[in-house]
Design a protein that fits this description.
Layout lengths: L8 E5 L3 H13 L3 E5 L2 H11 L3 E5 L7 H10 L8 E5 L4 H10 L4 E4 L4 H48 L8 H22 L4 H16 L3 E8 L2 E9 L2 E6 L4 E2 L8 H10 L3 E3 L12 H6 L2 E10 L2 E11 L7 H85 L3 E2 L4 E8 L3 H18 L3 E9 L4 H16 L3 E5 L3 H9 L8 E3 L2 H12 L1
Parallel strand pairs: 1-2, 1-3, 3-4, 4-5, 14-15, 15-16, 16-17
Antiparallel strand pairs: 6-7, 6-12, 7-8, 7-9, 10-11, 11-12, 13-14
Amino acid sequence: MTNVSDTGTVLIVDDEPRNLRLLRDNLSGWGFEIAAATNGLRAIQLAKEVAPDLILLDVKMEGIDGFETCRRLKADPVTSDIPVIFMTASTEMNADKVKGLNLGAVEFLLKPFQSEELLARVRVQTKLRQLMKSLAAQVEERVAAEAALQKLTHELERRVAARTAELERALEELTQAQAQMATVIGAAQTVAGEVVLDRVLDRLLRITLEHAGAERCVLVLAREGGLFVEASITRDRPDAVRLGLATPVEADAQLAVTVVQGVARTKESVFIQDTRGEPGLAGDRYLGARGPRSILCMAMMHQGELTGVLYVEREAVPHPYTPTQLETLRLLASQAAVAVKVALLYAALRRSNEQLETEVARQTEELRRTNERLTLELTERERAELARAALQEEIIRVQKERLAELSTPLIPITERIMVMPLIGTIDASRAQQALEAALNAVHGNRTDVVIIDVTGVTIIDSAVATTLMATAAALRLLGATTVITGLRPELAQTLVSLEIDLSTVVTRGTLRSGIDYALRQVR
């Protein structure tokens, strides 16, 4: 299993030299390789050259700011998968953070930051980056290598067994073929170990150019119902593979278009030793300008489907490719088809993952806005509930006051005489209300006589009787006379049994006699 280092290469981007020095000293002290840039354009260039494991990117910079720098990095396939941590001292942290995450950043650090926090986040992202690269490379390498090796081994064994009878005659040829086959298998394994399309095409063309002894190799891929020239290499510049051409075959004037289209249509490889002997190519503009050529055009097939066409060209020579060489190159084309197919699937998967991440970020933002709306609605609902509760309490309070007024009514007979009729059961609370109502009436109206009529009272206990006597005493202190009327025999007996002193109050049998008494008093 591949070991993942605790360190890696970190690209620091900040237009403040002091910040660069501080970050460089901290991270290099922890074992990280450091690359530094003071502006966004230099950072983009360094990211392509150095391929760092992590980019620490300042938001506010002269020229293009951190957001634009991140957008350009993520738009470039070469640098799009490099994780970015934004650094900012802005007070608008939340807005910057949302914008940065939408652009593809993985973290956000607020300046000034703690060294331990910086180290922890940098270590997490660099380890994650190295683990992802290592895991993807191991999985793809093992699966592709095992499949390619197994297929090549079975094919080789079958062909060797079929030619056992011809071993003596073809011993020298077979020995050479085995040596070349071993080389091609190693080359095929190398190609199969790659999952990035540009790297697969680069290695494939270099290997084909070397083993075919060709002057020129062109790779054509079948995409979207058409044929497109994707990469090419020439003998005079073997280290310069041209990638990402994406030129339609019909528009490319640097290969025999008729041959390529014929192979793509029939899905059968074609070897032309000398183009001068092919009547169908006599009018080909490209071949007419180049002179006699030797062309090997191989269909790259995967599970019965055309992946592309491998076009090999050299000058016409007296000694053509041997059958073994042709077979070896066809095997190489077959393995190339698998490697290219895997690389195309990997590229599609990565694009799908990027789209998924973008959609997740969008859905997360929508969920956040929805939560904010729900929170606001709940807050408004709580406020409405509190207002309703307050209104209900006020209504209850007013009702209680109204009931209190109704339970102890005061009826003026004259300006100086008031009657308080009491009805029903009198408890301590109601007796206290009667006391307060009588005192307030005498004080506010200058009343001389207060008649408390108990004709409608059913029960009076000692506490109530005591409160009534206290009411009479308090009224006397305010200058008013208390007259209790309507005492029935059973109530009078209750008062006597309770030993209540009635000497300080005037009692009358009926309300009418009490009113007559009061009128005489006020005259």
